[in-house]
Protein backbone atom coordinates (compact mmCIF):
# COMPACT_ATOMS: atom_id res chain seq x y z
CA UNK A 1 0.00 0.00 0.00
CA UNK A 2 1.41 3.39 -0.94
CA UNK A 3 1.54 6.44 1.33
CA UNK A 4 -1.39 7.94 -0.53
CA UNK A 5 -3.63 4.87 -0.20
CA UNK A 6 -6.37 4.75 2.41
CA UNK A 7 -8.77 2.17 3.78
CA UNK A 8 -12.49 2.85 3.54
CA UNK A 9 -14.45 1.86 6.63
CA UNK A 10 -17.59 -0.22 6.21
CA UNK A 11 -19.11 2.05 8.87
CA UNK A 12 -17.72 5.59 8.51
CA UNK A 13 -16.75 7.56 11.60
CA UNK A 14 -19.94 9.07 12.98
CA UNK A 15 -21.47 10.78 16.02
CA UNK A 16 -21.76 7.48 17.89
CA UNK A 17 -17.98 7.00 17.88
CA UNK A 18 -15.58 8.16 20.56
CA UNK A 19 -13.24 10.57 18.79
CA UNK A 20 -10.36 12.72 19.90
CA UNK A 21 -8.24 14.94 17.69
CA UNK A 22 -9.07 17.46 14.95
CA UNK A 23 -11.83 16.53 12.53
CA UNK A 24 -9.69 17.69 9.59
CA UNK A 25 -6.62 15.68 10.59
CA UNK A 26 -4.95 14.04 7.57
CA UNK A 27 -4.76 10.71 9.41
CA UNK A 28 -7.59 8.88 11.20
CA UNK A 29 -6.80 5.79 13.28
CA UNK A 30 -9.76 3.57 14.23
CA UNK A 31 -9.14 1.01 16.98
CA UNK A 32 -11.50 -1.86 17.71
CA UNK A 33 -10.70 -2.63 21.31
CA UNK A 34 -11.24 -5.11 24.14
CA UNK A 35 -10.20 -3.83 27.57
CA UNK A 36 -9.26 -7.31 28.79
CA UNK A 37 -7.12 -8.15 25.75
CA UNK A 38 -3.30 -7.93 26.23
CA UNK A 39 -2.83 -7.28 22.52
CA UNK A 40 -5.31 -4.42 22.59
CA UNK A 41 -3.49 -2.93 25.57
CA UNK A 42 -0.23 -2.90 23.58
CA UNK A 43 -2.01 -1.35 20.60
CA UNK A 44 -3.49 1.31 22.89
CA UNK A 45 -0.04 2.29 24.16
CA UNK A 46 1.37 2.42 20.63
CA UNK A 47 -1.56 4.49 19.38
CA UNK A 48 -1.26 7.02 22.20
CA UNK A 49 2.47 7.33 21.52
CA UNK A 50 1.68 7.96 17.86
CA UNK A 51 -0.88 10.60 18.78
CA UNK A 52 1.56 12.40 21.08
CA UNK A 53 4.19 12.48 18.33
CA UNK A 54 1.84 13.61 15.55
CA UNK A 55 -0.27 15.95 17.72
CA UNK A 56 -2.83 17.74 15.50
CA UNK A 57 -2.10 15.54 12.47
CA UNK A 58 -3.99 12.49 13.72
CA UNK A 59 -7.54 11.75 14.85
CA UNK A 60 -8.15 8.76 17.11
CA UNK A 61 -11.38 6.76 17.12
CA UNK A 62 -12.24 3.96 19.54
CA UNK A 63 -14.88 1.32 18.91
CA UNK A 64 -15.72 -1.44 21.38
CA UNK A 65 -15.12 -5.02 20.26
CA UNK A 66 -15.30 -7.19 23.40
CA UNK A 67 -14.44 -10.84 22.79
CA UNK A 68 -16.79 -12.11 25.48
CA UNK A 69 -15.99 -15.81 25.08
CA UNK A 70 -12.29 -15.24 25.69
CA UNK A 71 -12.55 -12.18 27.93
CA UNK A 72 -15.65 -12.38 30.14
CA UNK A 73 -15.03 -8.99 31.78
CA UNK A 74 -14.53 -7.05 28.54
CA UNK A 75 -18.21 -6.30 27.97
CA UNK A 76 -18.72 -4.98 31.50
CA UNK A 77 -15.63 -2.81 31.07
CA UNK A 78 -17.01 -1.41 27.80
CA UNK A 79 -20.27 -0.64 29.58
CA UNK A 80 -18.34 1.21 32.27
CA UNK A 81 -16.59 3.26 29.58
CA UNK A 82 -19.97 4.15 28.07
CA UNK A 83 -21.28 5.17 31.49
CA UNK A 84 -18.29 7.48 31.82
CA UNK A 85 -18.96 8.79 28.31
CA UNK A 86 -22.44 9.84 29.41
CA UNK A 87 -20.69 12.13 31.92
CA UNK A 88 -18.27 13.44 29.31
CA UNK A 89 -15.37 11.35 30.68
CA UNK A 90 -14.97 8.55 28.17
CA UNK A 91 -11.26 9.03 27.47
CA UNK A 92 -10.43 9.26 31.16
CA UNK A 93 -12.12 5.91 31.84
CA UNK A 94 -10.78 4.44 28.60
CA UNK A 95 -7.17 5.07 29.63
CA UNK A 96 -7.81 3.86 33.17
CA UNK A 97 -9.29 0.56 31.98
CA UNK A 98 -6.36 -0.12 29.69
CA UNK A 99 -4.01 0.73 32.53
CA UNK A 100 -5.55 -2.02 34.69
CA UNK A 101 -6.73 -4.88 32.43
CA UNK A 102 -6.42 -7.33 35.33
CA UNK A 103 -8.77 -5.29 37.53
CA UNK A 104 -12.10 -5.26 35.71
CA UNK A 105 -14.31 -6.86 38.35
CA UNK A 106 -17.59 -5.22 39.32
CA UNK A 107 -15.97 -3.88 42.47
CA UNK A 108 -13.14 -2.30 40.47
CA UNK A 109 -15.45 -0.79 37.85
CA UNK A 110 -17.73 0.63 40.52
CA UNK A 111 -14.75 2.18 42.27
CA UNK A 112 -13.40 3.70 39.07
CA UNK A 113 -16.76 5.26 38.31
CA UNK A 114 -17.61 6.59 41.74
CA UNK A 115 -14.38 7.69 43.40
CA UNK A 116 -13.55 11.15 42.18
CA UNK A 117 -9.88 10.56 42.90
CA UNK A 118 -9.43 8.22 39.97
CA UNK A 119 -10.88 10.70 37.52
CA UNK A 120 -8.89 13.53 39.06
CA UNK A 121 -5.75 11.76 37.83
CA UNK A 122 -6.80 12.36 34.23
CA UNK A 123 -9.62 14.89 34.28
CA UNK A 124 -9.64 16.86 31.07
CA UNK A 125 -6.89 14.78 29.49
CA UNK A 126 -7.61 13.34 26.06
CA UNK A 127 -5.77 10.57 24.34
CA UNK A 128 -3.68 13.07 22.39
CA UNK A 129 -2.30 15.05 25.33
CA UNK A 130 0.50 14.44 27.79
CA UNK A 131 -0.38 14.79 31.43
CA UNK A 132 2.19 17.12 32.98
CA UNK A 133 2.98 17.18 36.68
CA UNK A 134 4.84 19.91 38.55
CA UNK A 135 6.41 19.05 41.89
CA UNK A 136 7.57 22.36 43.30
CA UNK A 137 9.48 22.23 46.56
CA UNK A 138 9.90 25.29 48.77
CA UNK A 139 12.58 25.16 51.47
CA UNK A 140 11.63 27.40 54.34
CA UNK A 141 12.48 28.19 57.95
CA UNK A 142 10.10 26.29 60.28
CA UNK A 143 8.84 29.58 61.68
CA UNK A 144 7.57 30.56 58.21
CA UNK A 145 6.17 27.21 57.08
CA UNK A 146 2.53 27.91 57.97
CA UNK A 147 2.75 31.38 56.47
CA UNK A 148 3.92 29.84 53.20
CA UNK A 149 1.19 27.17 53.32
CA UNK A 150 -1.46 29.85 53.78
CA UNK A 151 -0.03 31.90 50.90
CA UNK A 152 0.02 28.97 48.44
CA UNK A 153 -3.41 27.75 49.52
CA UNK A 154 -4.94 31.19 49.02
CA UNK A 155 -3.58 31.73 45.51
CA UNK A 156 -4.57 28.18 44.50
CA UNK A 157 -8.16 28.64 45.68
CA UNK A 158 -8.57 32.18 44.37
CA UNK A 159 -6.67 31.98 41.08
CA UNK A 160 -4.77 28.85 40.03
CA UNK A 161 -7.60 26.33 40.09
CA UNK A 162 -9.69 28.56 37.80
CA UNK A 163 -6.99 28.70 35.11
CA UNK A 164 -7.51 26.88 31.80
CA UNK A 165 -5.72 23.54 31.75
CA UNK A 166 -5.63 23.09 35.53
CA UNK A 167 -6.28 19.48 36.58
CA UNK A 168 -5.54 19.19 40.30
CA UNK A 169 -3.19 20.30 43.05
CA UNK A 170 -2.06 18.87 46.38
CA UNK A 171 -0.30 20.98 48.99
CA UNK A 172 2.11 19.17 51.33
CA UNK A 173 4.16 20.26 54.31
CA UNK A 174 7.01 18.31 55.91
CA UNK A 175 6.84 17.27 59.53
CA UNK A 176 10.17 18.93 60.28
CA UNK A 177 8.81 22.31 59.17
CA UNK A 178 11.56 22.82 56.61
CA UNK A 179 9.68 22.19 53.36
CA UNK A 180 6.38 22.89 51.61
CA UNK A 181 5.64 21.01 48.39
CA UNK A 182 3.01 21.74 45.76
CA UNK A 183 2.13 18.79 43.52
CA UNK A 184 0.04 20.01 40.58
CA UNK A 185 -1.19 18.47 37.33
CA UNK A 186 -1.83 20.40 34.12
CA UNK A 187 -3.01 19.51 30.65
CA UNK A 188 0.01 21.06 28.96
CA UNK A 189 3.19 22.93 29.75
CA UNK A 190 1.75 25.93 27.91
CA UNK A 191 -1.28 26.02 30.25
CA UNK A 192 1.05 26.03 33.24
CA UNK A 193 3.22 28.81 31.80
CA UNK A 194 0.13 30.92 31.07
CA UNK A 195 -0.92 30.56 34.70
CA UNK A 196 2.58 31.50 35.89
CA UNK A 197 2.40 34.70 33.83
CA UNK A 198 -0.86 35.70 35.49
CA UNK A 199 -0.24 38.74 37.77
CA UNK A 200 -1.87 37.02 40.78
CA UNK A 201 0.31 33.94 40.42
CA UNK A 202 3.44 35.96 39.74
CA UNK A 203 2.82 38.10 42.81
CA UNK A 204 2.32 35.01 44.97
CA UNK A 205 5.61 33.50 43.81
CA UNK A 206 7.43 36.73 44.60
CA UNK A 207 6.01 36.69 48.11
CA UNK A 208 6.97 33.04 48.51
CA UNK A 209 10.53 33.70 47.34
CA UNK A 210 10.84 36.36 50.04
CA UNK A 211 10.64 33.64 52.71
CA UNK A 212 11.60 30.42 50.93
CA UNK A 213 13.96 28.86 48.39
CA UNK A 214 12.16 27.53 45.31
CA UNK A 215 13.11 24.20 43.66
CA UNK A 216 10.79 23.59 40.67
CA UNK A 217 10.39 20.23 38.98
CA UNK A 218 8.47 19.20 35.85
CA UNK A 219 7.50 15.59 35.12
CA UNK A 220 5.52 13.51 32.67
CA UNK A 221 3.23 11.02 34.40
CA UNK A 222 4.14 7.56 33.12
CA UNK A 223 1.87 5.25 35.11
CA UNK A 224 -0.77 5.46 37.86
CA UNK A 225 -1.38 2.52 40.17
CA UNK A 226 -4.41 1.47 42.17
CA UNK A 227 -4.45 -0.69 45.31
CA UNK A 228 -4.99 -4.43 45.02
CA UNK A 229 -8.31 -5.85 46.10
CA UNK A 230 -6.70 -7.20 49.26
CA UNK A 231 -5.48 -3.75 50.16
CA UNK A 232 -1.77 -4.45 49.57
Tell me what the structure shows.
The chain is α+β, with helices and mostly antiparallel strands. The chain is 37% helix and 21% strand. The chain folds into two domains: 18-120, Glutaredoxin (3-Layer(aba) Sandwich); 132-220, Alpha-Beta Plaits (2-Layer Sandwich). Helix 2 (74-85) runs antiparallel to helix 3 and helix 6 (145-158) packs antiparallel against helix 8 (199-209). It is elongated, with a radius of gyration of 21 Å. Mean pLDDT is 82; it is low at 116-129.
Q: How many domain modules?
A: 2
Fourth CATH level, the homologous superfamily of the largest domain: Glutaredoxin
Q: Which stretches are poorly predicted, pLDDT < 50 over at least 5 residues?
A: 116-129
What is the string of helix and strand elements?
EEHEHHHHEHEEHHEE
Radius of gyration: 21 Å
Task: Please outline the major beta sheet.
Answer: 5 strands, antiparallel
Query: What's the helix count?
Result: 8
User: Roughly how many Å apart are the termini?
Assistant: 50 Å
Residue-averaged pLDDT, rounded? 82
* Bulk shape: elongated
Helicity, in percent? Answer: 25-40%
CATH hierarchy class name of the largest domain: Alpha Beta
| Secondary-structure content class | alpha+beta
SSE layout and pairing:
Elements (H helix, E strand, L loop, with lengths): L17 E3 L6 E7 L4 H17 L3 E7 L9 H12 L4 H10 L6 H9 L1 H5 L11 E9 L4 H14 L7 E8 L5 E8 L2 H8 L2 H11 L2 E4 L2 E3 L12
Parallel strand pairs: 2-3
Antiparallel strand pairs: 1-3, 4-6, 4-7, 4-8, 5-6
Helix pairs in contact: 2-3, 2-4, 6-8
Amino acid sequence: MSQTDSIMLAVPVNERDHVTGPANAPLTVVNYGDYQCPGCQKTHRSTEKLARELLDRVRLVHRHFPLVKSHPRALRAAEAAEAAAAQGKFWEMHRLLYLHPDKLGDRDLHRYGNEEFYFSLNHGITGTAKLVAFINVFRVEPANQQRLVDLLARVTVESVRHAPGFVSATLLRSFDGAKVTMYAQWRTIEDYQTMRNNPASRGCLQQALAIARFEPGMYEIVESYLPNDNGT
